[in-house]
Amino acid sequence: MANPATTAPPLAVKWRKLAEARCAATGERLTPARLAAYAELLASDKPVSAYELIALLEDRQQRKIAPLTVYRHLDFLIRVGLVHRLESTQSYMPCDRPDHQHESQYLLCSSCGRAVEVASKPLDSLLRKIANQNEFRPQNTVVEIRGLCERCAASESD
Ligand SMILES: [Zn+2]
Ligand SMILES: [Zn+2]
Questions:
Q1: How far is the CA of 13 from the centre of ligand 2 (A)?
Q2: Three-state DSSP class for 142?
Q3: I need a surface site. Which of 13, 28, 83, 154 has the fewest CB within 10 A?
């Protein structure tokens, strides 16, 4: 039987290379367990909560995993910029372009739960400008927009 800690969904070379590069840049260690958590998030077609991630990992590795361990993996993935945390749904999704720093905006479908990351520089600078005009110092300019994705909007109007 394969080592349970390395039992993970297949990870495309592109993502593995990005993970290695982010770790090299931040001096973090990429362990098989961290990589397995990342692979699980990449394999999901929508953002998952910490508890959903625990269930996915336990199911795949056929063993109990302490929640704290998974929270640590998530902290790590966020720290190195591979994963984003969605505040409004308390869920996690892999970043589209982890190779550079950015503020993100998200389109979240309230029906199917899918999320799309859109990093809009003009929107980001507009938000900063508005904050500036109000003499407000923003710490982040993350925007989460809820609504219906194309597919769900189409099936609703059927
Ligand atoms: Zn991102
Ligand atoms: Zn949808």
A1: 29
A2: coil
A3: 13
Question: Fold for domain 4-94?
Answer: Arc Repressor Mutant, subunit A (1.10.10)
Question: Which ligand has the shortest distance to the CA of 77?
Answer: 1
Q: How many whole angstroms separate alpha carbon 38 and alpha carbon 17?
A: 13
Burial class from Cβ neighbours inside 10 Å (0-12, 13-18, 19+) for residue 135 reads exposed
User: Are 146 and 113 within 8 A, CB to CB?
Assistant: no
CATH of 105-156, one of 3.40.50.720, 3.30.420.10, 3.30.1490.190, 3.30.70.560: 3.30.1490.190
pLDDT in tens, 131-157: 999 999 988 778 999 999 999 999 987
Instruction: Starting from the CA of residue 112, give the closest ligand.
Output: 2
Among residues 118, 111, 117, 120, the alpha carbon closest in space to that of 149 is found at: 111
Six token digits for residue 19: 């993970």
Q: CATH 1.10.10.10: which residues of the chain?
A: 4-94
Q: Is the pLDDT of residue 158 over 80?
A: no
